[in-house]
């Protein structure tokens, strides 16, 4: 245990005994577990306490800058937190948030998320309850999800969507490749007809615009009226194109269109609203309250889609859910492959306790992932089920994790660039 300055010792002693006079656990160690079992770098923070076998895990995955999260945890948060009691989650969150003075960036928010979620895990294990019980208990049995259907041509996407529907999914996200271009969310056929002024992957928004609209038209006709269709625009269009796209997509009765605009263009959400009633989801790139607050309070979006660890973990995201409920905005937390199963369980936990839950993005866990993370959320008939064991209900096999280290890559997991025909870099 860390030696405490004498003037703090009395207060610390009181804190340590705050619950029914029982000694509260203290943070004995903080470590970082890294692995890449399915092609993306995952980072999890482990907090070990001074009480026998009591520990917790939190997701801190920021795959494009994974190597920077470890030192943020080990060099800054660990010395700051060693020796503290684990019971004051909000107090620790606020202390960590403020201790860098400059805040709301993705690396530091992920590091704080690792700590925050590990503390919730510990509290659940202490109580002998899953975290959802600590957050008020279930308001639904399981969590409705959407699957990702994609393909390099329309037929492939439709086939893929049908496969998911046959498995019981009622909601399907559809993405089609653009021949010769690096669109988002699908493979594509190569073609030599373009003559870009560079050698990077190519993308032009107008091609995407026409092809994606056509895809929505085909999917609605081929898949019928009952399936809920979703589509991720991935901040690829100019603001005006985005307004036009949302307006034209209105006829297909989407569940939602996602990320029509980039966080830099938030002011244009009002124009989308003024022009159509297509439901809009936004937020996976958000790190700061200054991004989500105005969109929620001005009711400019229908679904808030924050990536929990990018916002700083379970604690701040729960506040986002509650804020959104007051304004009739529903939740659709980001659930991609670059989220550890601990992060997915935090999503499902919030889904199950929030009245204003909308939908959950679903990414399957492969065998290697499940060999490392025991107790992942279970998928059945399109629904995800929360683990009923204490805390997040997940145990990590660190030996298995060590067998799946980060795969060396020239950019350390970072993304390369995509350019327009004339060489302009686009947001991807
Ligand atoms: C989604 C997302 C992801 C992101 C990815 C970035 O809606 O699932 O857009 O696919 O692109 O998480 O690393
Ligand atoms: Mg997305």
Description:
The chain has 428 residues and is of the alpha/beta class. It has a domain of 259 residues: TIM Barrel (Alpha-Beta Barrel). Helix content is 37%, strand content 15%. The protein contains 14 helices and 15 strands. The strands form three sheets. Strands 4, 5, 6, 7, 8, 9, 10, 11, 13 and 14 form a ten-stranded mixed sheet that branches. A three-stranded antiparallel sheet has the order 1-2-3. A two-stranded antiparallel sheet has the order 12-15. A hairpin with a 5-residue loop joins strand 2 and strand 3. The structure holds D-gluconic acid and magnesium ion. The site of D-gluconic acid has 7 residues, from loops.
* Helix run count: 14
| SSE run | HEEEHHHHEHEHEHEHEHEHEHEHEEEEH
Assigned CATH class of the domain at 134-392: Alpha Beta
What is the gyration radius calculated from CA atoms? 22 Å
Assembly annotation: single chain
List key phrases describing it:
globular; binds magnesium ion; 37% helix; single chain; binds D-gluconic acid; TIM Barrel; 14 helices; three-stranded antiparallel β-sheet; 428 residues; alpha/beta; ten-stranded mixed β-sheet
List the SSEs and their pairings:
Blueprint (H helix, E strand, L loop, with lengths): L5 H11 L10 E9 L6 E8 L5 E5 L6 H16 L7 H11 L6 H22 L3 H4 L8 E9 L2 H13 L4 E6 L28 H19 L4 E5 L6 H11 L6 E3 L10 H7 L4 E3 L6 H9 L5 E2 L9 H13 L3 E2 L9 H13 L6 E2 L5 H6 E2 L3 E3 L2 E3 L9 E2 L1 H5 L26
Parallel strand pairs: 4-5, 4-11, 5-6, 6-7, 7-8, 8-9, 9-10
Antiparallel strand pairs: 1-2, 2-3, 4-14, 12-15, 13-14
Helix pairs in contact: 2-4, 3-4, 6-7, 7-8, 8-9
Bound molecules: D-gluconic acid and magnesium ion.
The site of D-gluconic acid (GCO) has 7 residues, from loops.
């Amino acid at each position: 245990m860390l030696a405490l300055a004498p003037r703090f010792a009395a207060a610390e002693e009181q804190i340590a005994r705050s619950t029914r006079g029982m000694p509260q656990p203290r943070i004995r160690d903080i470590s970082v577990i890294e692995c890449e079992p399915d092609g993306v770098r995952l980072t999890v923070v482990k907090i070990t306490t001074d009480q026998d076998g009591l520990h917790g895990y939190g997701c801190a995955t920021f795959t494009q800058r994974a190597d920077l999260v470890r030192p943020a945890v080990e060099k800054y948060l660990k010395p700051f937190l060693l020796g503290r009691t684990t019971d004051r989650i909000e107090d620790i969150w606020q202390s960590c948030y403020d201790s860098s003075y400059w805040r709301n960036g993705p690396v530091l928010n992920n590091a704080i998320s690792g700590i925050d979620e590990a503390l919730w895990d510990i509290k659940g294990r202490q109580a002998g309850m899953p975290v959802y019980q600590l957050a008020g208990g279930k308001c639904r049995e399981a969590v409705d999800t959407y699957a990702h259907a994609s393909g390099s041509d329309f037929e492939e996407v439709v086939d893929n969507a049908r496969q998911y529907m046959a498995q019981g999914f009622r909601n399907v996200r559809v993405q089609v490749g653009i021949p010769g271009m690096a669109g988002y969310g699908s493979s594509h056929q190569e073609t030599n007809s373009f003559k870009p002024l560079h050698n990077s992957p190519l993308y032009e928004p107008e091609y995407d615009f026409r092809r994606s609209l056509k895809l929505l038209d085909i999917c609605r006709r081929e898949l019928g009226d009952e399936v809920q269709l979703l589509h991720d625009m991935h901040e690829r269009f100019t603001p005006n194109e985005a307004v036009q796209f949302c307006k034209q997509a209105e006829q297909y009765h989407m569940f939602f269109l996602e990320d029509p605009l980039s966080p830099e263009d938030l002011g244009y959400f009002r124009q989308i609203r003024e022009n159509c009633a297509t439901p809009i989801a936004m937020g996976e790139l958000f790190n700061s309250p200054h991004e989500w607050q105005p969109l929620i309070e001005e009711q400019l979006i229908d679904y808030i889609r924050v990536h929990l660890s990018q916002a700083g973990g379970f604690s701040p995201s729960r506040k986002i859910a509650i804020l959104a409920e007051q304004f009739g905005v529903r939740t659709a937390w980001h659930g991609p492959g670059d989220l550890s199963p601990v992060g997915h369980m935090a999503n499902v936990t919030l889904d199950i306790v929030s009245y204003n839950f909308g939908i959950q993005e679903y990414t399957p866990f492969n065998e290697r992932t499940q060999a490392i993370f025991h107790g992942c959320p279970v998928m059945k008939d399109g629904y995800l089920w929360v683990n009923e064991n204490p805390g997040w209900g997940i145990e990590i096999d660190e030996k298995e994790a060590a067998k799946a280290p980060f795969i060396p890559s020239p950019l350390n997991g970072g993304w390369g660039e995509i350019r327009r025909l004339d060489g302009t870099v686009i947001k991807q």
